[in-house]
What does this fold into?
Amino acid sequence: MIQTKPFSQACENNKEVILQKIALVFDQPGTILEIGTGTGQHAVHFAKNLPHIIWQPSDQAENYQLCLPWLAEAELPNINRPLVLDVNTRSWQIPPINGVFSANTAHIMSWPDVEAMFRGVSANLHNGEAFCLYGPFNYNGQFSSPSNRQFDEYLKNRNSTMGIRDLDDLKKIGTANGLDLEADFEMPANNRLLVWRK
It folds into this structure.
């Protein structure tokens, strides 16, 4: 039976611009953990174009197998099988890693989950290694665009624990976990790529 590949238009739209930036950050051989792999479109695109990297997909228990059709079709030697990852787990059951990437997760997670993600990322990175976080973010408590304000309302209507996070709040939990904001790249569609360095 042929398994239909899941598809995210957002991934198709942003995968190349994200690649251009993370290629500058993840420029050394190593294993990169992706938190919230989803469909697997990012994993395949990045692993294909960054052959020096081993890509480690992960997602919540109900979603971690979603990427398998994309991974199976790509047959890339530098993508590991996806792992179940609950960011709230005290000790993440993952192989040794050298960097972390996550896209469009911080506004879907509850705030305690975001804090747990930063704690877990820091616990698994060595000094000098990076965490790239992509998505929409607020600045000084303000939305960066009317569309982001509408998106935030949509998220909160779905679940009151969701919402676009403010950079100042993220900096505080970054600092608390030994992660400094090194770069803040402007991306299309009112998104950003934040690079945190341990």
Q: What stands out?
A: The longest strand covers residues 180-187. The radius of gyration is 16 Å. The mean pLDDT is 96. The helical segments are 9-25, 41-49, 68-74, 111-124, 146-158, 167-176.
